[in-house]
Automatic annotation (TrEMBL):
Domain Amine oxidase residue range list: 15-330
Gene3D superfamilies, per database record: 3.90.660.10, FAD/NAD(P)-binding domain (3.50.50.60)
Keywords on record: FAD, Flavoprotein, Oxidoreductase
Pfam families per the UniProt record, alphabetical: Amino_oxidase
Binding site for FAD: 36-37, 218
GO MF annotation: an example: polyamine oxidase activity
Name recorded for this polypeptide: Amine oxidase
Length: 379
């Protein structure tokens, strides 16, 4: 490697890959190539047009919108955050169609959040168990009338269901309370619906387009070898002044990345940013030699949830003009009943946000399992 820039390949052009490439460029590494399997950049940050609105089909919230969060800082620096319109009012309705007093709903919601966001330790319990237990304790200690306690209980259930979407989990009972303490809360969540894709544009801003290679699905990463190739063209020109052509040496690289189309790219370093799901499916055949046992075990043991978005388009808005979000409170719901039981799919239609421009569009987020059931039921 002596005498030449280290060649670095980043696999995946989602925000992780693009951010790595941008940082490397900032630190002066000029030989950086990004390989992306699909025909577009951004990965799970994606955008689409719907009616006259631009919608985010992937991420749209900055979780932990504070100076500690690099996504927040980048978008703030670009002036984008000043363009975000106000979210609008929160409205709460019961499943029977009654409007629930927003002050009461917010008070109960806040109480539920303070329990669910508690960082526990060494209890051996799941977040779901802990939440059901603590909220029940709180309900029992309340002096309120029965009616109010029931409503409080159902708002606690709403908090639990919103939490599933917030952390992208499919079941509160599969989140370990002990691990939950390691979640770093950097601040409130900021919804930048319709604007998130600008993060991708910002990350790409100074990156040379010819070093971003789309439709390059990486199928093998040989990462512990010695691969000889002729030096890059620029270095050939440089050495022509100093050495005779016969002295031209082959360059050696420790990594060779093979794409599905047969293309091979050598490198000194490779940064793999593909998702945990892709790693679970392909890690055993992707890396040659195999990754160390502890890494393979981590890939195997880590789990992920899934969320889907359903965009609803109405002929005209049925909500009041100042409304930004609508939460549905199911009267017979309790924190203990928060589950991903398929029979409960209707109860998991609990949170809708009005999309900008606030004309006819609404977004409903749910787990993939429920979205499949909802689509089937509405065909
Ligand atoms: C519907 C939805 C809503 C979400 N909402 C939010 C939110 O509001 N806020 C938030 O913070 N997060 C949200 N997330 C999560 C967030 O989008 C992701 O955590 C983030 O975008 C992941 O970025 P990444 O670069 O790590 O991975 P990815 O975006 O998955 O990028 C990985 C890239 O690698 C490519 N790739 C895969 N295999 C190969 C291969 N073999 N060769 C080459 N390339 C390959 C993929 O095509 C992809 O482009 C949401 C996710 C979804 C799906």
């Amino acid at each position: 490697m002596a005498g030449r820039n280290p060649a670095i390949v980043v696999v995946g052009a989602g925000v992780a890959g693009l951010a790595a490439a941008k940082k490397l460029k900032e630190y002066g590494f000029n030989d950086v190539t990004v390989l992306e399997a699909s025909e577009r950049v951004g990965g799970r940050v994606a955008t689409a047009s719907l009616g006259n609105a631009c919608v985010d089909t992937g991420a749209e919230y900055i979780h932990g919108a504070s100076e500690e969060n690099p996504v927040y800082c980048l978008l703030k620096k670009s002036g984008l955050l000043n363009q975000i319109p106000e979210m609008g009012e929160e409205a709460f309705y019961s499943n029977k169609g009654h409007k629930v007093d927003a002050n009461f709903a917010r008070y109960a919601y806040g109480a539920g959040e303070s329990i669910i966001r508690y960082r526990g330790s060494n209890t051996g319990k799941s977040l779901g168990e802990h939440y059901a237990e603590k909220t029940q304790g709180m309900i029992d200690s309340l002096q309120e009338d029965n009616d109010k306690r029931t409503r409080m209980q159902s708002i606690f259930a709403l908090v639990g269901k919103d939490m599933l979407i917030d952390v992208g989990a499919s079941d509160l009972h599969r989140i370990s309370l002990d691990s939950w303490q390691y979640y770093i809360n950097m601040g409130d969540s900021l919804n930048i619906a319709g604007f998130m894709f600008q993060l991708v544009d910002k990350l790409l801003e100074d990156f040379p387009k010819d070093r971003l290679l789309l439709k390059r699905e990486v199928s093998k990463i040989k990462w512990d070898g010695s691969f000889c190739v002729a030096p890059p063209h620029d270095e050939l020109l440089l050495s022509a002044h100093t050495e005779s052509p016969s002295e031209e040496k082959l360059c050696q690289y420790p990594v060779c990345i093979v794409c599905e189309n047969g293309e091979e790219i050598v490198a000194d370093h490779v940064i793999v940013t593909i998702s945990l799901g892709c790693l679970k499916a392909h890690a055993s055949s992707l890396f040659i030699p195999s990754l160390p046992t502890e890494k393979m075990e981590a890939i195997d043991k880590l789990c992920f949830g899934n969320i889907a978005k359903i965009f609803l388009e109405y002929e005209e808005a049925f909500w009041e003009s100042d409304v930004g979000t609508i939460s549905l409170i199911y009267e017979d719901d309790t924190p203990a009943s928060v589950s991903t039981n398929k029979m409960q799919w209707l109860k998991n239609m609990q949170y809708f946000s009005v999309l900008r421009p606030k004309e006819r569009l609404m977004l409903y987020q749910t787990t993939v399992t429920f979205s499949v059931i909802i689509i089937k039921n509405n065909k």
